[in-house]
Amino acid sequence: MFWKKRKSGSDRKQNDPNKEVENTTLTLDTLKNIVVNMDDAEIIERQINPDHKVTLLYIRTLINQERLNDEIIEPLIHHSPAPIHECINVCKASKVNDLDEAQRQLMEGAILLRDRSEDQWLAIKLENPLSRSIESSETETILFGPKDSFSEQIEQNVTLIRRRLPLTKLKTEKFTVGSLTRTPIVLMYIEGLTNPELITIAKSKILTIDYDLFLDSSQVAAFMEDHVHSIFPQFQQTDRPDSCVYALGAGKLTILVGNTPFALIAPITFFDLFISPDDYIHRWLIGSFLRGVRFVSFFLSLTMIPLYVAINTHHYQMFPLQVLFVLLESRSKLPFTPFWEAFLMLIIIEIIIEASLRMPTKTGQTLGVIGGIVIGQASVEAGFASKVLIVTVGISTIASFLVPNYLMVKANRLLLFAFMLLSSILGIFGMALGFIIVLVHLNGLTSLKQPYFAPIAPLHMSDWKDLFIRAPLQWIKTRPVSLYPLQKWRSSRRR
Questions:
Q1: Domain residue extents for the chain
Q2: What pTM did the predictor assign?
Q3: Which of 146, 392, 442, 492 registers the highest number of CB atoms within 10 A of its CB?
């Protein structure tokens, strides 16, 4: 054969796979020890002329075979007396002198090439990225507006943002986390707009991450959060490029993580988690109405069931007489107290929700509908729950899912159990105590050292134009004051 192909890594049994490489010098022997027992590792050698003998080392499953033939093998076949690196028509070739760097390049889809006459190793990027077509978001669906979403390919995600923000001031800084996964992270911000203090804090948090395995952006967020034990998300996860662009334009940071379609946005506030991308696409009255519905739904989802438990346990006198008769009749044959009755139904609802999420889409939807109807009806007929509670639990569950951010939905569901327990012990006063505890907790939270409950604490009235309502865009002329952006004004007309 024209090329002499050495055995793949898994066939080189003379090397002990458990023996550590003692010699850290970059040589062919040390590289052989590294790829031992790797079935997809290939070593190819060829004597191209009496003065030049080249060696190729690569991981077959990580490189583009077509580019290997066109850009490496073909030029070497027609090799001229010129140096090897001048004969290869690739733009991503770099000299490698360090064994650690050679290992990193090899596992990132590079080909290691050596000309023995020149005694020099080259790393040539020929990675074969696995990518899928750009699809619409499945987690943040909207009726109007852009339909594209991020993919697992980090370079493609950067492109989707840069096409929307064609600015030289849009900076990207790359980091790597995970000693095993070597996961790339790209920190994006607009220079001259974003507060430099935020950039410094984010960089320091990324650089202090010390863990071996990262498979999703949520794991990165867990290491960067200011308050690990809080149930409230301190980073916003999104797979929508337009959400990231809007955040960058407001003076925030966007963090892209390799091999996951979900980006991180920070810093955020509690109120950012109630904002939907189409709030800024609808007319301002419609957008304000829908945002108000979300806040009301969040409040109802936290109070309806605890209020049912509190009234049935401690505050019968609050019901009108006719309503009280209906309620007593519906609960007359129930074996459980109001707390355990509600607790049982909530657990059943959580089981149905979790099961529907884990099953295929159509099957999960069917399971959710049929499971809710059948179990609800059966619970009433069996005497495990009252009709009033079934209606209350149904409205509360639906209301909780109006919040656009799924992490906030789960925090809401967890808070519900705590509120229900307090209401069973102290009644309505327990609910009030729960709200006070939550408000104090929210006031003490930060996201990248920025107040989490802004613009209420601290108070910034200028940011209220885009808080509970979405004012006309012509009125929102300033960026959020709580972020302390270098460019405060969005519009050249400041009045």
A1: 28-125, 154-270, 280-444
A2: 0.84
A3: 392
